[in-house]
Prior knowledge:
By secondary structure, the chain is of the alpha/beta class.
Amino acid sequence: MTDAPLIAILDDEPDIRRLLAAALEDAGFRTAAFGRATEFEAALRRMTPDACLIDLGLPDRDGLALVHRLATESGAAIIIISGRAQVQDRVTGLELGADDYVTKPFDPAEVVARIRARLRKPAREAPRGGQIACFSGWSADFDRYLLHSPEGAETPLSHAEAEMLRMFLDSPRRLISRAQMLETLGGTAGDSFDRAMDVRISRLRTKLGEDPKNPRLIKTIYGAGYIFLSEVGWG
Length: 235
């Protein structure tokens, strides 16, 4: 199906590439698989994947640096697949812009489910008939994955940041609980999901110029969730 989402797979192990490609294609996705970062980066000049599965242990490039570049330059969802199982590795990957983190060995069905969750409500979707949201002097362009400050500065948004910002902008001045975040953004309940949400909100607050001790836009309601404190206009 030519309109099926395209998933890029970057892993230096041929067996893992074949395993992932087979599972994804059986689930209706298109795939493009690469064993080296240089091949993958060259292919990005002629293709636009909807999601990227990135191994950190690459032979020719630091995987985390590649994740960070993708997060700042691409609107694709990014899922790290790695044998590094330490909590700090997960946290670093999420802080650099990954949407999710899967450790090896893994069940291919789980990877498929996580990709579906990431693409279920993409940031490009425009239920209100517009792709640009305006709030408190800021504007967010979800077609170009860009955030514009009141002073006119332009900041790129990763897929994860855009996805979360869209969630807040769709429900301004309403409490959003962790359970609602799980339902809207997808994922697996537990400490890893909670940490991923904390990291995303921290990154988003930084890009919005928020004072972490006294945020003006994204307010934490301890024990309950978050509220986005601004009116929102769509165009």
